[in-house]
Amino acid sequence: MAGRIEPSLEVSSRRLEIACNSAGFVLATATTKTRLSQLGELAAPKPEFKQLVAFLREEKEDELELKNKPLGLFQLTQFACGGLALGSRHNHCALDGVSVHQFNMNLASLTRGEALVVVPKPNRTIFRARNPPQISHPHFEYSKATDTDNTFTLRGTTTTLIDKPQPHNQIHADGKLKNCTAFHAVASKIWKARSIVVEIAEDKISTMLFPVDTRTRIVPQASAGFSGNALVPGFARGSGRELKEEEYSSLVRRVQERIDRLDDEYIRSGIDWLEVNTRMPCREDSFSPVSWWRLGLETEEFAYGRLKCAAPVVVKPGIVFLLPGPTAEGGLNIFLELEGDQVVEFCRLIMED
Q1: What is the largest CA-CA distance in the chain?
Q2: Cβ-Cβ contacts under 8 Å for 270 (sequence gap 6 or more)
Q3: d(CA 204, CA 109)
Q4: Closest CA to 282 of 242, 234, 322
Q5: CA 205 to CA 111: how far, in whole Å?
Q6: Which range (41-50, 66-75, 88-97, 113-122) has the least confidence?
Q7: DSSP state, 197?
Q8: Residue 29: helix, strand or coil by DSSP?
Q9: ∠ CA 323-107-111, rounded to 5°
Q10: Of 57, 72, 129, 220, which has the fewest Cβ atoms less than 10 A away?
């Protein structure tokens, strides 16, 4: 994490590599006159959070070459009441959500004067493209590369709290699906509700992308403690008409089928596809539910105390964050970008039986 991303030294490869040059991991410290209680509900992204990451973005950062950008940045901010906020940015070429959680677990353990909880194993050769590439599947989950949005651009967001078991139990009650997880149910419900409120044209194809951890899906499996990015985008597609008219259980089945198809061959075909093509996850008429509620972020115990809340600073267009609800209430917080009038209708559809 103290190195930098650089193009591969192999002339024929488009792969990025980490140069272990000890260029450094950025750490900034700050103080604020704000008291933690003044921020209100901590789970919801809000403009006040910008001060907690103010030093994690350099002026004219977008003009910097990739090799000059840190892989990780931390800002530790002390509130007037004595509370602490740890703001972080990680390059997802280096770490995925699981690895970030393991990184933070180790950081918390070190602050307590204890040993590493998870010994990181950064060997990524198990995810290397085959030579020659063997593309055996079409990969609609990828599209032409486009510019990424500003990481810290604030946009309108909405929050709604739902009871996780409700849609999950509803699907099983239908008797049409088996092995339905809470994620299958919630993601499908969001897909349908979002499509309705943004009024997707009936003949338009909507793509829902969902990160899938491949650590145990590839053969052989990644080692325990693998430290890197092992996520690939699973996807489900449907027309505006299908999303409005199909039964809820039918949409869940689409999600299940698309996750189930991600076996070792499909994953390696996708890696080979990316070796040949310069692309990124599909951005056309798509969105991505990102689940933080199962990462266990709130379980980390630092020397200064247990985390009170872990939340994104902003919700970027096309991203739907799924976070744990209040500890005492359970449930699930959903964060996404919608217009004001769409928020009410979205909440109604999400809470609908």
Answers
A1: 59
A2: 137, 139, 141, 142, 232
A3: 49
A4: 234
A5: 49
A6: 41-50
A7: H
A8: strand
A9: 120
A10: 220
List phi, psi (to 5°) of 184: -55, -50
Contact between 87 and 28 (Cβ < 8 Å): no
Buried b (16+ CB within 10 A) or exposed e, 59-87: eeeeeeeeeebbbbbbbbbebeeebebbb
C-alpha to C-alpha distance for 209 and 34, rounded to whole angstroms: 38
Q: Kindly report whether the peptide bond that precedes residue 220 is cis, defined as omega within 30 degrees of 0.
A: yes
* Cβ(149)–Cβ(317) below 8 Å: yes
> pLDDT category, 176, cuts 50, 70, 90?
low
Which DSSP symbol is given to 69?
Answer: S
Model confidence at 148, in pLDDT bands (50, 70, 90)? very low
DSSP 240-260: HHHHHHS-HHHHHHHHHHHHH
320 touches 289 (CB < 8 A): yes
Query: What tokens appear for 33 in the block?
Result: 């006159």
Over residues 278-285, the mean pLDDT reads 75
Instruction: Name the token pair of 44.
Output: 């919801």
> Interior CA angle at 289 toward 36 and 239, to 5°?
145
Residue 316 token pair? 């970027």
Task: Collect all residues with Cβ–Cβ distance below 8 Å to 169 and sequence separation of at least 6.
Answer: none
CA-derived radius of gyration, the chain = 21
Our measurement of the distance from residue 291's CA atom to the centroid of its chain's CA atoms, rounded to an integer in Å, reads: 6
Contacts of 49 (CB under 8 A, 6+ apart): 39, 311, 313, 314
Distance from C-alpha of 299 to C-alpha of 329, rounded to nearest angstrom: 16
Give φ, ψ of 80 to 5 degrees. Answer: -60, -25
